[in-house]
UniProtKB/TrEMBL annotation:
This is Leucine-rich repeat-containing protein 3. It comes from Leptocoma aspasia. It is found in: Membrane. GO terms for cellular component: plasma membrane. Belongs to the LRRC3 family. Keywords: Leucine-rich repeat, Membrane, Repeat, Signal, Transmembrane, Transmembrane helix. It holds the Pfam family LRR_1.
Length: 234
């Protein structure tokens, strides 16, 4: 925060999105768009920006490739917005260089793990109305979460009422595995599908055998009728 305050004092001459402040310090360029009533991520952010603050706005969604052209980005602050949806490729193009991503205090219930686990950035996900499920569990285990905020990732909804209101980490430490429930469901669905295909195969074989038997009977009747027909002709 102190670094951003210092950046405010030194403007830079490149194009800057309306309602934002663009500053530079020691070659690090920042775009500061805090509390500007923005409803979406600005389209005209300079390509060489390093620090991007979009906190305290009304942004509801992070679409695919939202930051793809900003290859120098190291920090993104999207806290205190109204974000509900994050697309799978939302951070495509900035995954390698991003060091910090703040998504705290939004309206995020679920998130595709593909959007976050590829990032090297330290993540803040606290104070969202999370639905505790397998994808969130995998993010917790695989992504680089900010340790100071992990305890504030709380189950707003969950498959069982007893988990609601509890920190996700506490629920998982108690031995709960949301992914095993999904795996059992997948196994059952696979078993039902395989059983259906097997039943269809058996039915086909039965029909095939029955059809061949009927053809054989008709052919036998025809052959048996040949001598009698010849004798009748004589």
């Amino acid at each position: 925060q102190a670094f951003f305050c210092l950046l405010l004092c030194i403007p830079w001459g490149s194009s800057c999105p309306p309602s934002c402040q663009c500053t530079e310090r020691a070659g690090a360029k920042a775009v500061l768009c805090s509390s500007q009533h923005l409803e979406e991520i600005p389209k005209d952010i300079p390509r060489d920006v390093v620090f991007l603050k979009l906190d305290a706005n009304s942004i509801t969604r992070i679409p695919n490739n939202a930051f793809r052209h900003l290859s120098h980005l190291e920090e993104i602050d999207l806290s205190r917005n109204a974000i509900e949806k994050i697309d799978r490729a939302a951070f495509k193009g900035v995954a390698a260089g991003l060091r910090s991503l703040d998504l705290s205090s939004n309206r995020i219930r679920s998130i595709p793990k593909e959007a976050l686990v590829a990032l090297n950035a330290k993540l803040r996900l606290a104070n969202n109305p999370w639905h505790c499920e397998c994808a969130l569990q995998e993010v917790l285990w695989e992504a680089r979460l900010d340790l100071d905020s992990v305890q504030d990732i709380t189950c707003h909804t969950a498959p069982r009422e007893e988990y609601v209101g509890k920190p996700l980490l506490q629920v998982l430490d108690a031995g709960v595995n949301f992914c095993s429930v999904r795996q059992r469901t997948t196994d059952v669905a696979m078993f039902v599908t395989m059983f259906g295909w097997f039943a269809m195969l058996i039915a086909y074989v039965i029909c095939y055998v029955r059809h061949n038997r009927e053809d054989s009977c008709r052919h036998g009747d025809y052959l048996r009728s040949l001598p009698s027909a010849q004798a009748h002709a004589e």
